[in-house]
Structure formats: C-alpha cells, structure tokens
Design brief:
Strand content: 15-25%
Structural class: alpha+beta
Distance between the termini: 38 Å
Shape: globular
Low-confidence stretches: none
Number of domains: 1
Mean pLDDT: 96
Oligomer: single chain
Largest sheet: 6 strands, mixed
CATH architecture: 2-Layer Sandwich
Order of helices and strands: EEHHHEHEHEEEE
CATH topology: Muramoyl-pentapeptide Carboxypeptidase, domain 2
Strand order of the largest sheet: 3-4-6-5-7-8
CATH class: Alpha Beta
Radius of gyration: 15 Å
Bound molecules: zinc ion
Length: about 160
C-alpha cells in the first residue's frame, strides 16, 4: 500500500530484527493512518526541499518506522516510543549529506511543518534522523544531536 506518492507502508513495517525473531510487525489501522500523516505532513515536504537543494530528486529511506511492542522491546526502544504508534520514523536520505538534510528539516520546522522532535544520530549510532510528529499536541520543534559516547544534546543550526 502506498501511503503518499513517495512512501509505502512496507517501508514502515520492514524490520530485519522482526524477521529474525519471527515477529509479525504489520501495522494496525490506526498506525497506518499515523504513518500516512507523518509522510504527508513532514516526510514529503522534506524530501521535496532536499530535492530542490540537490537539484535532483533524493529518495529518503525509512530505516525504522512502525514497531509493534515486542519489536520495540528487542531493539531497545523506550517504553513510550513514538515508533509504537508510527508517529516517528528513522530516515536517511540516499546520496545526500545527512547534516545538510537535518538543517533543511529544521528550516521546514521553523517554517510551520509540524515536527515535534528530531534527532540526528552520529554515524556510530546508526547515522540516521529520527523524526517525530503528533497530531494530538502542539509540535514542540525540538532538535537534538546524539553523539557517540555521550548523551543527547540540543542541536542548533550551524
Ligand atoms: Zn526513532
């Protein structure tokens, strides 16, 4: 099932860990709805802006989207992880600088795109970008960097 023009449901459900542990990580309907809103409200505009910056389309890979409870536990996700409701996705632009992509996401958030929380993970932590939103609260637009060997720190634009 296609969620929005450039993002499909299977990208949100796939997980090597789930396969490895025989876990059924198919998203329930409410989570499918959330994933669709995340794509429409945040990921599509972000993909578009990265494309403008690069002068060509840049796909965004969803590395981890929806996580059912057993999967979330196995990957060490926090108890109230937004991944449990598909209100978050860990993403990576393909062939585009990740720091630059994070800056562009910040620009969008300052421009009204409803990013609640974004985390840039250092390469040692997987080198992806966690993007969370919520329709149930006013987006807080908090941006963090998670360096290797240290705790989460606030991120400000360079
Ligand atoms: Zn995440």
């Amino acid at each position: 099932m296609q969620l929005t023009p450039n993002f499909a449901l299977w990208e949100f459900e796939r997980s090597d860990k789930a396969i490895e542990h025989g876990i059924d990580n198919r998203a329930p309907l409410f989570a499918v709805g959330n994933a669709r809103v995340l794509c429409a409200a945040v990921l599509e505009p972000w993909r578009w802006l990265i494309g403008v910056d690069a002068g060509a389309e840049v796909p965004i890979e969803v590395r981890s989207g929806y996580r059912c409870k057993p999967l979330n536990k196995i990957v060490g996700g926090v108890a109230l992880s937004r991944h449990l409701t598909a209100e978050a996705a860990d993403c990576k632009p393909v062939g585009f600088d990740i720091d630059e992509a994070f800056s562009l996401l910040y620009e969008l958030a300052m421009d009204g795109v409803p990013v609640d929380k974004a985390i840039l993970y250092a390469p040692e932590r997987g080198g992806s970008i966690h993007v969370a939103y919520s329709t149930s609260i006013e987006p807080r637009r908090r941006f963090y960097f998670w360096p290797a060997g240290r705790s989460l720190e606030l991120w400000t634009p360079p």
